[in-house]
Design a protein that fits this description.
Length: 352
């Protein structure tokens, strides 16, 4: 494998997915390409299970831990106690914590073409035994008419972070058609600050107006905003010899918009498959097949979440509120959440 290429692996995208791949490839020649300095462009509300942060050694980036999810809908609040807490974190610190555990070389450049063994960037072309596409939603967006844009299977999110402390603990989600017709709003407390956002699963929603309405109801005004797309339509895990991970492969989950855990989960599996080949344990073809099978094993549940996402948009809010209340008793809530986590890529909590 070594010798005839510039690198063993070139990874394009230095966020959750790309860094998770790079972390598995210590001791190999890895080039990580991103258009921005690592950790400099936050797009997400940055809420993920504590177990995910632990799995990549990024606990020091945690701002606040949350032991419950609160769904506000139909005029009621349904509280779900979490077996394993979710945490909100500092994006830059999280990425830095992952980055220092890699042995990769970083190149700040925009990649313009990805092929099985070659990547072209604004700062030159590089060859590699493996090329990994971890460019996030921007990668799927370019897939043209056969891509998810045609399916209407993108989510869109916009968020602002304000320097106020939110007193009621937990991650809060609001399903209210008055605010967002097909989607939800959220409040994520982060210690001394709080993130307020809106997400929609249809392009027509005017996110900025929805966010302003949401904040007005709370007597607040938006500060700086950031956001992006949620790539919830699955792509081929390997396309034309390039491995795709995270949002670049549509690993963000429908209905919930959770994409950090899945990007890291699949990134770790992708990196391990490549490391196995680079160590001579199996062939390139076997590595691609292994990764494909691992991703595919979760396709069915992903499709179910897509159905749930469509259903939630149809069901009257009062019914949604009632359904949420019915699911709050701990044994049932635990069964639902465990199933959701295990079927979409879970990291075992410490001591489990
Ligand atoms: C408003 C909002 C809030 C969200 N909140 C949450 C949340 O709280 N929890 C959660 O789990 N998920 C959340 N998500 C989803 C989550 O952010 C994504 O699923 C996750 O970031 C995917 O990680 P990734 O590494 O695959 O891609 P990204 O994080 O998008 O990273 C892609 C990287 O590739 C780089 N890149 C792209 N194109 C190129 C190129 N041509 N050349 C070089 N570099 C390139 C980018 O600069 C970027 O660094 C949210 C999404 C949005 C939009």
């Amino acid at each position: 494998m070594r010798g005839w290429t510039d690198y063993d692996v070139v990874i394009v995208g230095g966020s959750f997915a790309g860094l998770a791949v790079a972390m598995q490839l210590r001791g190999h020649r890895v080039l990580l390409v991103d258009q921005y300095p690592i950790g400099s462009h936050q797009m997400s509300a940055c809420g993920t299970p504590l177990a995910t942060a632990r799995a990549v050694g990024a606990e020091r980036a945690i701002l606040e831990a949350h032991d419950r999810l609160v769904l506000h809908t139909g005029g009621k609040a349904a509280r779900f106690v979490l077996r394993e807490p979710y945490v909100t974190f500092d994006y830059a610190a999280f990425c830095r914590a992952m980055w220092v555990q890699t042995h990769a070389v970083f190149l700040q450049a925009r990649a313009t073409s990805l092929q099985a063994h070659r990547v072209e960037t604004t700062r030159g072309a590089f060859t590699a035994s493996f090329v990994v596409d971890a460019r996030g939603w921007r990668a799927c967006h370019r897939n043209g008419p056969s891509g998810p844009a045609r399916d209407g299977a993108f989510g869109y999110g916009l968020e602002t972070e304000l320097p106020i402390r939110w007193e009621e603990a937990g991650l809060h989600f609001f399903f209210a058609r008055r605010l967002v017709r097909n989607g939800y709003a959220w409040i994520f407390p982060c210690g001394e600050t709080t993130r307020f956002g809106v997400g929609a699963f249809e392009r027509e929603t005017k996110l900025r107006s929805a966010l302003d309405r949401f904040l007005r109801d709370l007597g607040l005004e938006a500060g700086e905003v950031h956001g992006g797309l949620l790539a919830v339509a699955r792509q081929q895990p390997v396309q034309d010899g390039v491995l795709r991970v995270g949002d670049a492969a549509g690993h963000c989950l429908p209905a919930t918009g959770e994409g950090i855990r899945t990007a890291i989960f699949h990134g770790i599996h992708c990196g391990r498959a490549l490391a196995g080949t680079l160590a001579g344990r199996y062939s390139r073809e076997e590595a691609l097949r292994l990764y494909t099978l691992q991703v595919r094993s979760m396709d069915r549940f992903h499709r179910r979440l897509l159905t749930l996402q469509k259903l939630v948009a149809q069901v009257p809010e009062s019914l949604l509120g009632l359904a949420a209340q019915l699911c709050t008793p701990p044994p049932l809530a635990r069964w639902i959440l465990d199933r959701y986590w295990v079927k979409t890529g879970w990291f075992l909590p410490r001591g489990a």
